[in-house]
Design brief:
CATH architecture of the largest domain: 3-Layer(aba) Sandwich
Number of helices: 14
Low-confidence stretches: none
Shape: globular
Largest sheet: 7 strands, mixed
Order of helices and strands: HEHHEHEHEEEHEHEHEHEHHHEEHEEEH
CATH superfamily of the largest domain: Type I PLP-dependent aspartate aminotransferase-like (Major domain)
Distance between the termini: 55 Å
Strand content: 15-25%
Mean pLDDT: 96
Structural class: alpha/beta
Number of strands: 15
Strand order of the largest sheet: 2-10-9-8-7-3-4
């Protein structure tokens, strides 16, 4: 007898990013859907990978990560956020930010626990919560200025918090809306959480891509929140190398110990030569990330300028490398249908916002990735302006 599969995730299909990238490939469309750059990592970083590939760095790395890389991250964290962290007991290298997020959720969430996410929410959060036996509570971000500015709905969050709230997941700079948090926001959050036994998981993979003179405010910078926080970030977003799948989790010692109990059986360890190369590059070029915001702001500004004659409405993104476009003046179709139709019809793929939300999204908006070379952005904008 062949056993039947009783799915643990019966309501989960193929992620929208896979669907849209495959459709773009099938149609020969410009892929502004999935968030990956069209340019290469720094040449010096690639050189260091080649060096370590040929010089003995091809076996297992230590389970928490290469010591030199964790030490460089500790120094970077101190410089950027004023947080002194111990490389041995508070930093773990993960297989991309996704594994860092997954391992954190598995480490702290128990059956019956509630986990709060803010919609639009990255689609990997809820499946991980479900696998841990938790229940996801969705709180829509509040929308201002014709729906282009998103922010935490503090009253809704206050109403949702309870003794059952095991974890609150934050994603700022926010994908897909570009929303950011301020120091005042973190202080307000700290005050609100004091009565509750709630952990924080902060997805900060776009920490170095914030625009218009604003800087990222990390949970690492808030003393009170730090005590209950897992902060996850990504080398892929910073070094234009999303395919390397290397991230990291920073958390206090007790939380890190629990994180590693799961991490060691989720992935055990992460690709060794790239870890050594990243350690070398961070030591040689500790300020590389400082140019990232200006680099992507130029991309954002170009893309928005090229669309000025179109029928789309927009407000330049505040962070990340995604631009939200409102198509209300072009079509009344729902976003998922339109994203597929336009991929086929004009050859430009985007991401609908509805898969990020539990409740139907009222606004007619699509997300476009502008982490592309200028020629690609120009061609894509020309096609979008034809609508």
């Amino acid at each position: 007898m062949i056993p039947a599969i009783d799915s643990k995730l019966p309501n989960v299909g193929t992620t929208i990013f896979t669907v849209m990238s495959q459709l773009a490939a099938d149609c020969g469309a410009i892929n502004l859907s999935q968030g990956f750059p069209s340019f290469e990592p720094p040449e010096r970083l690639i050189e260091r990978i080649e060096f370590h590939l040929r010089n003995g760095a091809n076996q297992y790395a230590p389970m928490p990560g290469v010591p030199g890389l964790r030490e460089q991250l500790a120094m970077k964290t101190a410089r950027l956020y004023g947080r002194a962290v111990d490389a041995d007991t508070e930093i773990t290298i993960s297989t991309g930010a996704t594994e860092g997020l997954f391992s954190t959720i598995q480490a702290v969430v128990r059956p019956g626990d509630e986990v709060i996410v803010f919609d639009p929410a990255y689609d990997s959060y809820e499946p991980a919560i479900t696998l841990a036996g938790g229940a996801t509570r969705h709180i829509p971000l509040a929308r201002r200025n014709d729906g282009f500015d998103f922010e935490v709905d503090w009253e809704a969050l206050h109403s949702a918090l309870s003794d059952k709230t095991r974890l609150l997941i934050l994603n700022f700079p926010h994908n897909p809306t570009g929303a950011i948090l301020t120091a005042a926001d973190l202080n307000r959050l700290a005050e609100m959480l004091r009565p509750y036994p709630t952990f924080l998981l902060s997805d900060e993979v776009y920490e170095h891509i914030v625009f218009d003179g604003t800087t990222h405010t990390s949970l690492l910078s808030n003393d009170e929140l730090w005590e209950r926080s897992f902060v996850v970030s990504s080398f892929g977003k910073t070094f234009h190398a999303t395919g390397w799948k290397i991230g990291y989790c920073i958390a206090p010692p007790v939380l890190t110990a629990e994180f590693r109990r799961v991490h060691q059986f989720t992935t055990f360890t992460v690709v060794t030569p790239i870890q050594h190369a990243l350690a070398d590059f961070l030591e040689e070029s500790p300020d590389f990330h400082l140019d990232l915001s200006a680099f992507y702001q130029r991309k954002r500004d170009l893309f928005c300028r090229l669309l000025e004659g179109s029928r789309f409405r927009m407000k330049p993104a505040r962070s990340t490398f995604f631009q939200i476009l409102d198509y209300s003046d072009i079509s009344g179709d729902n976003d998922a249908t339109l994203a597929c139709d336009w991929t086929r019809q004009i050859g430009v793929a985007s991401i609908p916002l509805s898969p990020f939300c539990e409740a139907p999204l009222e606004a007619n908006k699509l997300r476009f990735c502008f982490a592309k070379d200028d020629e690609t952005l120009t061609d894509a904008a020309r096609r979008l302006c034809s609508l």
